[in-house]
């Protein structure tokens, strides 16, 4: 089954920025783009006249206006648009079977309810089995064409970060961009490292060379698979969120992974992804780990 990029739209400037970004990414990757607007008739249990047909027409009008805007800006993209008769979370997650990625808008800076889908943003990002890209608008207008590196965080073992690294390299290759891979590390508290891990650090010449070696080894298979992509390796002492955010100012995209976690109030996205989504100035791709 052929893949497509799916962008959620709701008429807001943030969702139009997301659709604009998704159209450019679709052209880079040679994929079709589908715009999706979620709407479901939910009559109120109060004695008021409720116009279902009017609401349905309004949903269709909103979608067609977004479709027209994207088509004018990106006439070469293969574009479809659809009103999905469901709640936003269920509607977008229901497109995953065909989706290469889901793209949503974000108002940034502030509570997670800043996503264009309101509080549904966290649910989509936390539950999606596909990459989800959150895109901000700039002064209420669709973002300009991106420049800079594709920045990716490498955490843990090569297996832990394989999905995020793969997405970063694929994106950079499609765009003709470079990858900047960042690994953050912290001084271990007393007894935190096992004797075996400390022995490996000693053999590597210390903690910094050990972390540099770990990053280099995690990148090796992706360098081999994408030899045309320039790569910069960066190891820095600090928390992963802080180190990634400090490097994100010159990035065209920040890629972070997330492990499947579920809290008492629903899916959790992890502290690194949470910080990136709230504070990074560039679009953020959150990649579910295998």
TrEMBL record:
What's the domain of life for this entry?
Answer: Bacteria
Q: Where is the UspA domain?
A: 1-136, 150-288
Q: Which Gene3D superfamilies match?
A: HUPs
Q: Which SUPFAM superfamilies match?
A: Adenine nucleotide alpha hydrolases-like
Record-stated family:
Belongs to the universal stress protein A family.
Q: What is this protein called?
A: Universal stress protein
- Its source organism is Streptomyces gardneri
Source taxonomy: Bacteria, Bacillati, Actinomycetota, Actinomycetes, Kitasatosporales
